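User: I'm writing a tutorial on reading structure tokens. Could you give me a worked example: one chain, its sequence, then its tokens, then a sentence or two explaining what the tokens reveal?
Assistant: Sure. Here is the example chain.
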Amino acid sequence: LKTLLEFIQNNYSAGGRAFCDTAPVLERYWAWRAGLGWIGKNTQLIIPQAGSCFFLGELIIDLPADRYDSPQENRCGSCTRCLNACPTKALEAPFRLNSAKCLSYLTIEYRGELPLDTGQKMGKMIYGSDECQRACPWNRFATPSRTIEFSPSASLLTMRKEDWHRLSEEQYRTLFKGSAVKRAKYQGLMRNIRSAKK
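And here are its predicted structure tokens:
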């Protein structure tokens, strides 16, 4: 995104900024308006022939576009697999997510103590939940990323259950350097580990 932005700035004298989950930009909404896909019953953007397992990135620039695409029609049909798969029933109805129940919100953004029954619903998950996306039939089109930077590190892959319970703050900083897992903070991740189903 930064390379593309530099190209636009250098060749078209435009100002702008690049974003990828780095500012309060309504990414899904603008991606839908731009015609990339539709917002599914699980509230995720679904791209035809790609699914919903991807990052959304935006360039906001001060030039008008030559043309605008149209939003896509929703193609979820009568499917409710995402709603049925949600461990906390945070998807209370199609297109309606109660974030206060969502494991992704609770284990990543929420700073308080987890509700008492959350641990049983987490299973072995200690950071986020993608159960609604796993259940979505459109994700059969998703392909694994070949971008090296998105691959788990060798040190992460060798972690065992007991290692997680003994994780020090220094190990946490090393293990997740430059990672979005740092959004949960060390205390939040350890809270999640203690709460997860044994």
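What the tokens reveal: Residues 124 and 198 are 8 Å apart (CA to CA). The first strand starts at residue 16 and ends at 19.
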